[in-house]
Amino acid sequence: MSENAITRRSFLAGSAGVAAVAATVGFTSFGAWQSAQAEEEATPGRTDTVHTLCNACSSKCGYTAYVVDGKLTKLIGDPNNPNSEGHLCARGYGYSQIAYSKDRLTDPLKKNAQGQFEAISWDQAYAEIAEKVQEIIASDGPEALALVQDPRPSGSYYCNRFIAALGSPNTYTHGAACNLSKVSGITQAIGAGDWVSDVENSAMTMFIGRSYCDGIRPSQVAALKRAHENGAYIVMIDPRCSNSTVFADEWVPIVPGTDLAFVLAMSNVLIKNHLYDAEFVAANSVGFDEWAAATENCTPQWAEKITGIPADTIERLAAAFAEAAPAASIEPSWRGAYGCAYANSGETARTVALFNTLLGSWNQPGGALLTSGISAGKLEDPRFAAPPKIEAKKLGSAEYPLASGSMGSAVYAGEMAKTGAIKGMFFYYSNMAAGYSNPEYLANAFANLDLMVVCDVQMSETAALADYVLPETSYLERSELPEFGGGKVPYVALRSQVLDVIHPNTKSCDQIFTELAEACGVGQYFEFTQEELAEAQLNTVGLTLDGLMKVGTVQFPEKAFVYGKQPTFNTPTKKVQFVSEACAKAGLSPYPVWIEPQDPVPDGEFRLVGGKQAIMTHTQTANIPELMNIAEEYGLMRPWINPVDAEALGIKDNDEIVVENDLHSGTSKVRVTERIAPGVVYLPSHYGCTVPEQHTAYNKGLRIMDFVPFHIEPAYGSTMSQNTTVKIKKVGA
Ligand SMILES: Nc1nc2c(c(=O)[nH]1)N[C@H]1C(S)=C(S)[C@@H](COP(=O)(O)OP(=O)(O)OC[C@H]3O[C@@H](n4cnc5c(=O)[nH]c(N)nc54)[C@H](O)[C@@H]3O)O[C@H]1N2
Ligand SMILES: Nc1nc2c(c(=O)[nH]1)N[C@H]1C(S)=C(S)[C@@H](COP(=O)(O)OP(=O)(O)OC[C@H]3O[C@@H](n4cnc5c(=O)[nH]c(N)nc54)[C@H](O)[C@@H]3O)O[C@H]1N2
Ligand code: SF4
Ligand SMILES: [Mo]
Hints:
5-stranded mixed sheet; alpha/beta; disordered N terminus; binds iron/sulfur cluster; 733 residues; binds molybdenum atom; binds ligand MGD; 16% strand
């Protein structure tokens, strides 16, 4: 075992000691503590508890892990964590089993000349990767290197620092396949990439392609339930009747991709009838008159033809909003309708932010809250100083100028791998080859790379394409840097190591990238341990690592959001921008106007939409047997079609059908249900794994991205994940 591993073991010993104290922290009385002790003594073996963060999705809920004799036995959501509020979702429990998965990667792998993976030592992996990195830098400069990662606390820091230390600006998140257009479009309007809709205190909240009860974060599900109980009027705009509809007053089906027309028409109603907050708009915005003139023709009658929503429904919903305002808003959404889906996604997001401006609901109770977060202060210790500033701009920033700078367009990076502008790519916590655009196209693009390195815990589609695969410990076997979070009450939370390292030759992200940096000759930027950095970061906000480990999450009520405070808009004009110079420069209209989401749908074809299921996350959970069993038992992998379409095609519920287009063809049992609008096929987005090494997930269900062409949203740089159509027929028909 390496010296580092011993350090980590001794760190764990420390954390177990702390954990024993942690068990007492949650109890309110000495009596409760005593009875818990008695219970614990009655349990054979030793129970430790550790506060940590779930890693089954980006919500990173806080929980207490119970470990008996070194084995994880119980997970309880931490009540003081704002994402879990004491509850975990099914994925949180199920995904904890990743630690014990039979399909874990256990050793560094190198692809040999025959295309087979061979286990190699870490030293060999580092030395060979470093040699290739140096070759690429010597021949093409550091800008020919790129990294894609899902932003996790340690991952964001270590991976980005590693690439920056090598001199490349090319770091990308998964945003292009998630919420890049949403964040970037909203930013054009209000100067921030998001807001928090105060759902539970609202008189009316509308969700456009966002389902709290499918794309789960436990605290949001609870807030929606409270909103419903409080009598808020909740409206779901969705081609699919999602599970959130149980807490809604109205489900309004819409033609996929046409939400922009719908919001333009609701804006038209407010403006035409002087139902908007004219005082707020006059004092806080620029360009309103130009936009108002441009939306004159965007009448409900016009929008009905595009969206399929009756004109009087649009009139009624707009009027209801005006009545409920300012305790009303359109929820910012996340991915579903305009995170990255269509040619008009960024502009839809921009328009939604402008609509909330018409309601005058910024920072109002029940409205749209511009909350802030907390972040680590400047670190004085020179060891933590940033690598030298890089002059070169991130690849894609000129081509997609509206794409949020911190996210960037990972799909454009894929394109640059194809053209040869990028020669070496690193992937941390990313299954780009299965989820960010057309998998076949991306596989071809990555085949062009001189170096492809993937760090994962199992053999993913992306890892399968790599030259080197680096096995990470699972999230339960490592500690990470603190997570600094925002919301109504800012917080800091910590992922702490729960289990001893199970596979001795796996390492944690901080170790891997520190050692890789040393091998690449940039070790001087990594002369600290993760614990030292965590301590330094925490000290800047008045916390200590030991202290945070004892409680898992600390909230900062003194920095809590205050209702009614004048919103600040961090746009170039410091106002809400109904017109945006940056949009005009990027080739769009200065104010949002209708843009077709996609090419017209040929006769007999269907629009394809995806969506989350409560028990699965992206591509990362389908290989967990406990979760896959649920999917199989309840037929969750089936695409949904409307009975009208089914009848026309002679298809019955549970028939085997073919879903196909020019790119791909696959078969599946079908679910025929009124819960999907006619003309639309819904495909759950977690299935269709193509890697045999994932013994549970392999070859089960269809993979939505196989049906999506490789293309990029103009100006915003997203993957246009729903810009496609499919045909369906009964097998044998
Ligand atoms: N269970 C689960 N929860 C998750 C995740 C997960 O993978 N699984 N991932 C987390 C992450 S990273 C994200 S980004 C969020 C995503 O959270 P959401 O954005 O809520 O997720 P989706 O299910 O993709 O989309 C929501 C809804 O949009 C609808 N929709 C699709 N196309 C359109 C359209 O054109 N117009 C309209 N109006 N609606 C449309 C779908 O039918 C679906 O019901 O979930 C987070 N939580
Ligand atoms: N087909 C499909 N594509 C999608 C989505 C979808 O639901 N289905 N969702 C979209 C959305 S909303 C988003 S946010 C993105 C998300 O895109 P990604 O962030 O790429 O998420 P995943 O597809 O889950 O892939 C995560 C990879 O990280 C690996 N992993 C898990 N735990 C660890 C760990 O501890 N360490 C390391 N190093 N690796 C780990 C998993 O095994 C998996 O291969 O995908 C988008 N694309
Ligand atoms: S929402 Fe579920 S999967 Fe996501 S972090 Fe929380 S418990 Fe884990
Ligand atoms: Mo996402």
